[in-house]
Amino acid sequence: MIKGINHITLAVRDLEVSFRFYAEILGMTPRARWYKGAYLEAGGNWICLSLDETTRNSALPEYTHLAFTVEVAEFSAMVEQLQAAGVQRWQENRSPGESFYFLDPNGHKLEIHISNLQDRLKVLVDRPPKDLILFPAT
Questions:
Q1: What residues are labeled active site?
Q2: Rounded distance between C-alpha atoms, residue 93 and residue 101, angstroms
Q3: Under CATH, which architecture does the 1-55 domain have?
């Protein structure tokens, strides 16, 4: 049985640029680095950056993305920091809760978000979409 997400690996074109972005701009904690990769940690989760010369140069067209939790009190400052770093915004927020959608240096779609699953489920209960099925928590 799956217990959770173990790690997320992102292919990167330039390890140095990506490492600085995730460590300095996003504030993840570096845990290891070598010539073809790096491990960074945030909130008990780890991200692997893997050097890959075949990494695409632009974002994929679909909605697939990674969302990171930030504290409510830190959200505005984080958005300002990302904007000051010149990140490209890929979407305006259209969902409940504060979100900022942006691209990393490799075109990976990312989001910072202050809501959680319980908040999202409450929105669904309050405004149920067609054919909504809710499942019990385990």
A1: 111
A2: 7
A3: Roll (3.10)
